[in-house]
Amino acid sequence: MHRSSGLSSPVGTFRCAPCFAVGFLSTLLLAAVAMPLATVRAQAVVAEPAAKTADKDVKDAKATDKQSKRKSPVIAQITLAGAIPDGVGQGGLLADVSPHLHRLVERLDKAATDSRVKGVVLSIESPAIGRGRAEELRAAIGRIRKAGKPVAAHLVGSDPVHYVVASACDTVSMPPAATLEITGVRTEVTFFKAMLDTLGVDAEILQVGEFKGAGEPLTRTSMSPQLRAQYEQFVGDLYEQLVERIAADRKLPVNEVRTLIDTGVFTPEAAVKAKLIDAVAYEDEVISGLAGRLKLDEPKVARDYAEQKMDNDFSGIGGLVKLVELLSGQKQAAAAGKDRQVAIIYLTGEIKEGKGKDELLAGGSAGSDSVIEAIRDAAKDDKVAAIVLRIDSPGGSALASDLIWREAERTTKPVVASLGDTAASGGYYVAVAADKIVAAPGTLTGSIGVVGGKIAVGKALEKYGVHTDVVSKGRNAGWLSMQTPFTEQEREVFLATMKDVYRLFTSKVAAGRKLDMETIGKLAEGRVFTGRMAKDLGLVDRLGTLDDAIDEAKKLAGIGADEAIERVLLPEPRGLFDDLFGMAGDAAPVARLAGAAAAPGSSFAHQALVRAALLARMTGVPGLEGLAAEAEALVQLSSGRPLMMLPMRVRVR
User: Fold this and answer.
1) Residue 77 reports pLDDT greater than 50
2) Peptide bond into 600 cis (omega under 30)
């Protein structure tokens, strides 16, 4: 474009006349040329809003469709199967690969509060749970029903505990080929003495407490009268609880339920006639039946509702990061809210000194270092108002139990113990440090007594050409040796330490439960009780679930019943690296067997046990191979240290 030049003066700007004319003409020409372009552009401007409007309409339609889908009614399907251990479990990507109890309860509670969910189908496929965990699931089912949402149980694999969970639902259905088993309550204790005698192995197990039968599997061929008497007591109470639960849930007379339990095994059709279940149906029929009951034409079925899906794409740098997270585990996300917190500290599995391990590999254990660290972290955190110790343990090391007890007892914050399937011996020892104890009716608890000893395998190894020479000085230098049984002096020294630990145990229970020593004497001696029996005897304060224990903790902390709290789960979950390679201070399962004998500082007991296990594998000695599978419990039982634990292998069905 031509620009005219001008001269500036104090008066103003003057333009050259010829230049002005040229500029004017140029402007006219440009205007004439631009008119068609302007018209086109104007049309485009008019058309553009129309196109944007059309796009907006499409987006709005999609948003409306998405919103309608979001608001469309949902039937949530959740499966109970496999091991469902208590404890914190893995975080992040592994949260639902091997789900822990609290994750399933969280998902059930989400279904209760999710406005989209109109009903729940609970598929019960032989989960590995005990009576304490069954109560937690029943309570969560109750919260869904209280929210006005029906819960339909599809019972695939059934024993009495599975049926007790199913009977908490509105309806119970089974597929045609399934079998309902409500055969009562049975406890089994496996005894190894005859086999050990055949192999030339001497089990040197001592006990303090007439009913403390933890060592009997290795020292007897059958139950002692004392052990049998206490087992008959708690099995009888578990049986009565089963009868009462079925009668209440299914609205059947108690005597009729007893008759049905004596029959025990039912086809689905027979179970319907007996009013134990409501229908014979496959899972899809259960879902469609629930939809019909809710008058939903085409409900969306949210299969594995609220389950965290694992992203298995590990390609690229992002995939490598995900893989590292998967193997190393993830910390819990820091609490973002302003609510006060209650720390849930899990003590699950056998109690041992040092670090614990999770159930993802080779079972779980409660390490004193891990639990103590968790208690200390909760105690010093200003946001944490109270602590709940969630205990599911048969006991273990007396020393580790005492160290955990001390840390729980010395904290100034309120502490409530919540007992799961089992909180016996060392598990109960820790619980008495709490201000309140809440147990499930079927929790196995008590077992106030001490056991310990060693297994002498010298003669057995001699049969296979394994000979050990000894150079020793000191009368009791060989008291932990697994080559020979105790001498009289060694037995006397060991028994004295056990009696002292027993005195410590009973005095702690008396102080914690505010009972006199005479009363404790009648409740101790290794006696085992159900939670309901323990409540009547003053060993626990209340029957209930983890939520009930949290309610007690809130009361003690001065938190209103309706005031929201945040739950912090401790100890922090360990990763696969920790469990596989012992990176968190505990040897990996494989490394424990393969390298224990050569490990510096390993005890004679550990070395001999590993040698015996390896010898059994090489020679195919019947039975001893089975003992190798119980290596963890055997190492504990034969460690030469006082223990607070239940019998090595007890199965209650």
Assistant:
1) yes
2) no
Distance CA 95, CA 189 (A): 34
Q: Tell me how far apart the alpha carbons of residues 630 and 219 are, in angstroms, rounded to a whole number.
A: 16
Rg (alpha carbons) of the chain, rounded to whole number? 35
pTM: 0.79
Coil/strand/helix, residue 68: helix
The CATH number that domain 74-191+209-303 falls under is: 3.90.226.10
The SS3 assignment for 459 reads helix
| 621/357 Cα distance (integer angstroms) | 30
pLDDT at 390 over 50: yes
Give domain limits for the chain.
1-49, 74-191+209-303, 341-652
pLDDT for 95: 57
Digit-coded pLDDT (tens) for 474-508: 888 877 787 888 889 988 998 999 999 999 999 99
Over range 545-566, report the average pLDDT. 96
Alpha helices of 186-339 — where are they, by DSSP H?
Answer: 193-199, 216-219, 225-250, 254-263, 268-273, 283-294, 316-328
- Among residues 175, 181, 164, 178, the alpha carbon closest in space to that of 286 is found at 175
Q: Is there a common fold for 74-191+209-303 and 341-652? A: yes
* pLDDT recorded at residue 97: 62
Region of 578 (left: φ > 0; alpha: ψ -120 to 50; beta: rest) is alpha
Task: Write down the CATH number for the domain with range 341-652.
Answer: 3.90.226.10
With CA atoms as reference, report the closest residue to 124 among 170, 77, 90.
77
